[in-house]
Design goal:
Blueprint lengths: L1 E8 L3 H12 L4 E5 L5 H5 L2 H18 L14 H11 L6 H9 L3 E4 L2 E5 L2 E4 L2 E11 L3 E3 L15 H6 L6 E5 L3 H12 L3 E6 L9 H14 L2 E4 L3 E6 L5 E5 L4 E4 L1 E4 L3 E3 L31 E3 L10 H19 L16 H4 L2 E4 L4 E6 L2 H6 L4 E7 L4 H6 L6 E7 L4 E9 L6 H9 L4 H4 L12 H9 L4
Helix pairs in contact: 1-9, 3-4, 3-7
Length: about 475
């Protein structure tokens, strides 16, 4: 039996941050990992997917600037892109991540963890106890849609979609969310003939113009975008080809099929039943990430289903690590909104970038979500292509910006940008939303000219200056 103050189950980016912040406050910490230290983001999600996308974005951006366009004389080198992607995953080796844990004086226990009782974790037949807390940071898993024949056709999930070592001649992507849209864009840029099918439009839950602009751009890239259709049957033949039948009566034949239709909690085999929780469920938490009904179990990142984004998970991890240490040491816990030990931003100030081309960058509430909450909303939009900085960024720049204002308080509660290179504009919007900066004060935040950030002035002018 080995004792630590804190045991963290899951050594991905989020788990590492829980461990690091708690250890910096003086706790002894161990992390348990069944796969690669560094987790999903490092090997099968954020980093490899963006590496797959970046080269195509760079070539497309050059082609949109006269003078630079003439210098682009070839296509993207897919082999080089895949090699670069592999370099960002350290060729799927976790030596450097393990070395970081060692340097931070955090113990690593390899193997599958099962909770066997309060503050008790078993790994490989050995029992470990936590004096203060156990944190479940196991993330989420790809969820396969219930389509006849799909499972037998050996489809790609998001892991295969980010780690494949060859470009498929053709690819069907099922799902028009963030993952489906990004991976369709990535593989099309690498030369695959891509078809994307989505039950509704693309990027549901965002401002409607986001999905519309992305769909238009996908079609220009050569992607066959079909919305309002569902697969009803999938079959892989003896030659390896996949035939997908859609509910409009058409069929699509491709080399591979990728399902990107959702995630499920990675909690089915953790022993949660031993402490009265339901295996396979998302874990419900308070704002310090403490699992409801317990005083020792924490759930951080995707597994609590608050915001399935690495940066939000790491934000939660910083709060949870500090809260765990404070409680263990008998110090005050600052659990008030925006306090040091809570993840308040999860509720109304979540930033997200979809790395399609154009990019979609958003934070806070959409107009529809704000109205559903009964907020006194005024929303204004502006053509991002009409801003001088955008015209310099790319010839024929296409994009849009939207600002959602809570009129009763006079503060910005949501912003969405769609266009080339808008990801780097998002943090200013995030600060405005988190800081609840009054619209009156934003008039004095002067955007440098000529940059794309001038759209802030145009949005304010469209909204109207107070008397």
């Amino acid at each position: 039996m080995t004792d630590y103050d804190l045991i963290v189950i899951g050594a991905g980016a989020v788990g590492e941050n829980v461990a690091d912040y708690a250890h910096k406050r003086g706790l002894s910490v161990a992390v348990v990992e069944a796969e690669l230290v560094g987790g999903e983001c490092s090997y099968w999600a954020c980093m490899p997917s963006k590496a797959l996308l970046r080269s195509g974005h760079a070539v497309a951006a050059a082609k949109r600037v006269d003078g630079a366009a003439q210098a682009v004389t070839g296509a993207v080198d897919a082999a080089k892109v895949l090699a670069r992607r592999n370099s960002f995953t350290s060729d799927y080796q976790d030596d450097s991540q393990v070395a970081w844990l060692e340097s931070a004086d955090i113990a690593l226990i390899r193997g599958h963890a099962r909770i066997t009782g309060e503050k008790t974790v078993e790994v490989g037949g050995e029992t470990h106890t936590a004096r203060a807390a156990v944190a479940v940071v196991t993330g989420s898993l790809h969820q396969l849609p219930d389509v006849p024949g799909l499972a037998d056709a050996q489809p790609w999930g998001t892991r295969e979609g980010t780690s494949a070592q060859q470009v498929p001649e053709s690819l069907l992507v099922i799902g028009g969310g963030v993952a489906g849209s990004e991976l369709a864009t990535a593989w099309a840029s690498l030369g695959s003939k891509v078809t994307l099918v989505a039950r509704h439009g693309l990027l549901g839950g965002m401002e409607p113009f986001a999905g519309e602009l992305v769909a238009d751009a996908m079609r220009e890239l050569g992607i066959d975008v079909r919305t309002g259709v569902n697969p009803t049957r999938v079959d892989r033949d003896e030659h390896g080809l996949v035939t997908t039948t859609l509910d409009d009566g058409t069929t699509v034949v491709t080399s591979e099929v990728l399902a990107a239709t959702g995630r499920k909690a990675h909690t089915a085999d953790l022993g949660l039943e031993s402490v009265g929780l339901t295996p396979g469920d998302w874990l419900q938490v308070d704002d310090t990430m403490l699992v409801q009904g317990t005083d020792w179990l924490y759930a951080v990142g995707d597994v609590n289903h608050r915001a399935l984004l690495t940066h939000q998970g790491k934000y939660q991890a910083r709060a949870a690590g500090e809260a765990i240490a404070a409680r263990a040491q008998g110090r005050p816990v600052h659990a008030e909104p925006w306090g040091a030990h809570v993840a308040t931003a999860d509720h109304a100030a979540v930033p997200q970038v979809t790395f399609t081309d154009p990019e979609v960058a958003s934070v806070g509430l959409t107009e529809a979500a704000a109205r559903e909450q009964g907020i006194d909303v005024r929303a204004v939009e502006y053509d991002l292509g009409a801003v001088a900085g955008s015209a310099l960024q790319a010839d024929g720049y296409t994009g849009r910006a939207k600002m959602v204002v809570d009129e009763s308080r006079g503060v910005v509660i949501g912003v969405t940008f769609v266009g080339q290179d808008v990801a780097e504009m998002l943090h200013a919007a995030t600060i405005a939303v988190v800081g609840e900066v009054p619209v009156d004060r934003l008039w004095h935040a002067v955007p440098a000219y000529p940059t794309m950030n001038e759209v802030w002035l145009r949005l304010l002018e469209t909204h109207g200056r107070p008397e």
